[in-house]
Amino acid sequence: MSLGAALRVTRGLSGLLPRLPPRWGHGGACAPPLLLAQQRSNSTSTKIKVEFDPSSGVAVMRMQSPPVNSLSLDFLTEFCISLEKLEMDKSCRGLIITSSQPKVFSAGLDILEMYGKSPERCGEFWKAVQEMWLKLYSSDMITIAAINGSSPAGGCLMALTCDYRIMADHPRYTIGLNETLLGIVAPFWFKETMANTVGHRTTEMALQLGLLYSPSEALKVGLVDQLVPEEQILATATQTMTKWLAIPDHARQITKSMMRKATIDRLTSNREADIQNFVNFITKDSIQKSLRAYLEILKRKKA
Ligand code: CO8
């Protein structure tokens, strides 16, 4: 039974249960559910590859957008379409998200989408970022991030929306919300997603300092749940999924919603204002200068 259906059944019994956000009502860049319901769950788009195993009810989604799986508008659109297809397929109960790119899970938002773009384009981009977060954070599926590489900023956010995080134990990999290092500010729903996971104080320090944690530091603060050698990451994710699949869906889904609803509602009821904030902030000359400087640092690092 879906979370929405479970809630409809149980609401009669208890008016205290939280109301879910409308699953298809976010109004983002994704395709309509009816159309998607008719499509198969296995799919390969340019940037996202999905393999669904009907016998286990588990899908593996691989991000394959070279070089670093940065979250561009195109990427986010494909990501949301793939996610919505899986969500519509009631035989799909679990989702493992991982990367096909070496050394990187996701480099976070595509900085080029925020630099030198028109306000209209920035608004469209931000709406797609919101959409990805809303869909993942409110997903009925069990979601596990198999973090097989570095995962800064929006990449960390994506991992944080999942129910469980397994990271490859490699000293070169880092994870965290490092927005302040770029001279930008993580929005309230980034902050709340992290605080919901690791607590207020750790989040306050991490966000102000733009901390990028090594895998062992991330495990220590609870940003990830488990470290494994990289070659074991998918096997471990699959084993962990089995444990989660043993819990009745409706009970787990309602519990998940109870834990996340307040944060989801805050964005759902402030989407337009949040888009406007982003556009006003990101198009400021001073912020554009910071982004240019950061892009130059990235290039210099490579040279
Ligand atoms: N966007 C666009 N391009 C990127 C990004 C990115 N996020 N990250 C890396 N690239 C590019 C590099 O510039 C480089 O391009 P080129 O080949 O043309 O020189 C290419 O990808 C490869 O990068 P690296 O050589 O650095 O690859 P490595 O494997 O050595 O390192 C890393 C991979 C660790 C991911 C590294 O690239 C890195 O640290 N990238 C920056 C990550 C980052 O800081 N992301 C923050 C994005 S902002 C965000 O997600 C939230 C914003 C919230 C906005 C709120 C405003 C109100």
UniProtKB/TrEMBL annotation:
<comment type="subunit">
    <text>Homotrimer.</text>
</comment>
<protein>
    <recommendedName>
        <fullName>Enoyl-CoA delta isomerase 1, mitochondrial</fullName>
        <ecNumber>5.3.3.8</ecNumber>
    </recommendedName>
</protein>
<keyword id="KW-0443">Lipid metabolism</keyword>
<dbReference type="Pfam" id="PF00378">
    <property type="entry name" value="ECH_1"/>
</dbReference>
<dbReference type="InterPro" id="IPR001753">
    <property type="entry name" value="Enoyl-CoA_hydra/iso"/>
</dbReference>
<dbReference type="InterPro" id="IPR029045">
    <property type="entry name" value="ClpP/crotonase-like_dom_sf"/>
</dbReference>
<comment type="pathway">
    <text>Lipid metabolism; fatty acid beta-oxidation.</text>
</comment>
<dbReference type="GO" id="GO:0005759">
    <property type="term" value="C:mitochondrial matrix"/>
</dbReference>
<dbReference type="InterPro" id="IPR018376">
    <property type="entry name" value="Enoyl-CoA_hyd/isom_CS"/>
</dbReference>
<keyword id="KW-0809">Transit peptide</keyword>
<dbReference type="GO" id="GO:0004165">
    <property type="term" value="F:delta(3)-delta(2)-enoyl-CoA isomerase activity"/>
</dbReference>
<keyword id="KW-0413">Isomerase</keyword>
<keyword id="KW-0496">Mitochondrion</keyword>
<comment type="function">
    <text>Key enzyme of fatty acid beta-oxidation. Able to isomerize both 3-cis (3Z) and 3-trans (3E) double bonds into the 2-trans (2E) form in a range of enoyl-CoA species, with a preference for (3Z)-enoyl-CoAs over (3E)-enoyl-CoAs. The catalytic efficiency of this enzyme is not affected by the fatty acyl chain length.</text>
</comment>
<comment type="similarity">
    <text>Belongs to the enoyl-CoA hydratase/isomerase family.</text>
</comment>
<keyword id="KW-0276">Fatty acid metabolism</keyword>
<dbReference type="GO" id="GO:0006635">
    <property type="term" value="P:fatty acid beta-oxidation"/>
</dbReference>
<keyword id="KW-0007">Acetylation</keyword>
